[in-house]
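job 3f2a | input accepted
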Amino acid sequence: MKKLLLGAIVGGILAFAWQTLSWTVLHLHDSEYKQTSNQDAVITSLGQLEEGQYLVPRASTTASMKEMEDFEKSMEGKPWAIVTYHKSYKMDMTMNIVRGLLVSIIAAFLICWILMKQNSSFGTTFMSSIFIGVVGYLFIPYSGHIWYQTPGATTNLIDALVSWGLCGLWLGWWLNRK
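job 3f2a | predicted structure (178 res):
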């Protein structure tokens, strides 16, 4: 149990540390969130929306297949957007940091638990950690990139490789100590 808990805590801290560097000091994700010169006008025009995420324009969710096909044909070559709208800016960095760290530790715990079920070498442990990170990347951010051309495909891949690579280096050493 000590191996599992300590492996998860240190592995989670390593993954979280990379994420922190990636988003702050290294600014790898800056290009994913652009600024517009008319941001006040844009936010004012969005003011009547309910909080949520919007695909603009979009066919009605009650549209028939024929109506959806016609809508898609009419949209070919025209501009579109994905907008995430919030009514109020609330940045609680303390809770975000705590939650982010806990998520990283829980993810590392799950990886550590899987890896402890194997009797494997440093290399297998390291590669397994990276592969698990890549599976997460492919299923969530890259799938979004495929369907909605969301930005950050490269930076999210870097994050997956480095964060879970660091965790894998640690777990490769920690779990294979005698």
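job 3f2a | The radius of gyration is 21 Å.
job 3f2a | closed
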